Amino acid sequence: MPNATVHLVRHGEVFNPEGVLYGRLPEFHLSDRGVAMAVVVAEHFREMADSGVVFGYLAASPLSRAQETAQPSASALGLNIETDPRLIEAENQFEGLKVSSSELLKPRYWRYFRNPLRPSWGEPYQEQLNRMRLAVEAARVIAVERAGDGAHAILVSHQLPIWVTHLSLQGRRLFHDPRRRECSLASVTSIEFEQQRVRSVRYSEPAAALLPGAASTPGA
């Protein structure tokens, strides 16, 4: 039995009719489909609780879409939502733009592509990973302190910070093709710990039935 499990949840679909890269911009809320995704994730966790899993901690990024995704789980599990700024979306120089290849080829953006390995257009992958690791470790410790050995924690965050964390835990390089991220809307990446050692990383999509037709514009 793991000493603790931390679940990294990506937020649900965002209402974004203009298809802009919303990044850390405020007031981007869940769509109706996104709310339904959040409810499905909450049911997933409630079923786990009904089977004997004890949840001791729930935190979310300060952005609206993460807070709204966390709300049904908080209600289902009787937990408060704690806001952790370390879970926020990656900073991106292109937020607010409707990103396309023709737009990005404009000369005024060329300076942002000088180092794609870092990447130079936004928050470095390593910095994202560093803050996410701190958030995950804090969640592990707090969950066990509050709910005992074997406790679970839920952290609602965003695709890119979750994915670089997943890559690191698998010993893979952080630079990657964004089209190949295994972190769909309302997905759950579960990290099992034995004390401070990661025993396994599992990925699931409780809201898979709602993914067809969902907006695919990433946050960063």
TrEMBL record:
It comes from the Bacteria. One of its GO terms (cellular component) is cytoplasm. GO terms for molecular function: phosphatase activity. This is Fructose-2,6-bisphosphatase. SMART domains: PGAM. It holds the Pfam family His_Phos_1. InterPro entries: His_Pase_superF_clade-1, His_PPase_superfam, PGM_Phosphatase. It comes from Psychromicrobium lacuslunae. SUPFAM superfamilies: Phosphoglycerate mutase-like.
